[in-house]
Write a structure and sequence with these properties.
single chain; 295 residues; mainly alpha; two-stranded antiparallel ribbon; 11 helices; globular
Length: 295
């Protein structure tokens, strides 16, 4: 059997694939954060709580209304997006001209409220959620048995991430949005409703968190703390990629998932901290992040 630095090659490739699955979640969540910060200048600390909400909505839909996974993959992000729309109109719109710290504190408070509500109704115990029957089972890749659902998570995440990147960076709608956030008065002079565009951007960003939550529900136990356990790592991903960089968030999220997987093979004790070590090293060399722009 071929070894790589003393590690059997099948074990190494298996961890790389599992790291890619984790990286898919990092990419999805950091993408939403990057969209919101890049367009609205808001550090959305509530992103983890909204990710948790998406997972819980999937579980509630199946448990109480019999709505299957595929339907909830559309319904849950829609509900989370509408919830985000209300938050933006009622609270966030007053903070755009203030320091980032105000948005951070407000969304941190929202996190506590949202998690508190779910914790009071469902406790902190995990709720099981089965993968859809069409994605049950596993595929033998020769070097590992890959669960079909995890392969679906990687594919779905890549499709959504690339779709959002194309929408923002390569279409006229994305160009209008970027122009609207940099010079709203000029864009409004051309008849564009900039406040509505900003609101829909925030709703779309948090809907990505809801979508990631539904994807995660069959892999993780659905619980009220699942967002808190992930949000710090996701923020580290955004910082490494460059605050507001769409492409940076996607590539960094996937890359750090793979780095985590390799660390579990060669030095498991550091697997929970390797992301922050990478962040420190990157900031020493490039304070704006790998794909960020120096100001």
């Amino acid at each position: 059997m071929t070894d790589f630095f003393g590690v059997p090659l099948p074990a190494l490739l298996g961890q790389l694939l599992l790291g890619l699955v984790n990286g898919s979640f990092y990419a999805m969540l950091s993408l939403g954060l990057a969209v919101i910060f890049g367009m609205l200048n808001i550090i959305n600390f509530a992103h983890g709580a909204l990710y948790m909400m998406g997972a819980f909505l999937a579980w509630l839909g199946l448990e109480y209304f019999g709505i299957n996974y595929w339907a909830m993959l559309l319904i849950a992000p829609l509900i989370v997006g509408v919830f985000g729309l209300v938050i933006e109109r009622l609270l966030l719109q007053w903070l755009y001209k203030l320091d980032h710290l105000y948005g951070l504190l407000l969304t941190f408070g929202l996190t506590l409220v949202i998690e508190g509500v779910f914790r009071s109704f469902f406790g902190v115990g995990g709720q099981p959620y089965s993968a859809p029957e069409a994605l049950s089972g596993a595929t033998n890749l020769g070097f590992m048995i890959l669960p079909n659902y995890r392969a679906w998570v990687v594919v779905a995440s890549l499709v959504v991430c690339l779709g959002v990147w194309v929408l923002i960076e390569k279409t006229s709608l994305g160009a209008t949005l970027r122009a609207g956030t940099e010079n709203p008065k000029l864009v409004q002079a051309f008849g564009v409703n900039v406040p509505r565009l900003v609101t829909l951007t925030y709703a779309g960003g948090v809907a990505l968190a809801g979508f990631a939550g539904v994807l995660a529900a069959p892999i993780l136990q659905v619980n009220s703390l699942m967002g808190s356990n992930l949000i710090i790592v996701v923020f580290a991903v955004v910082v490494i990629g460059g605050m507001g960089s769409i492409l940076g968030s996607i590539l960094t999220g996937l890359g750090l998932g793979v780095v985590e997987g390799l660390t579990k093979v060669f030095y498991p004790e550091a697997s929970n901290t390797v992301v922050f070590v990478v962040m420190a090293l990157v900031l020493l060399v490039r304070p704006a992040g790998l794909f960020g722009k120096e100001k």
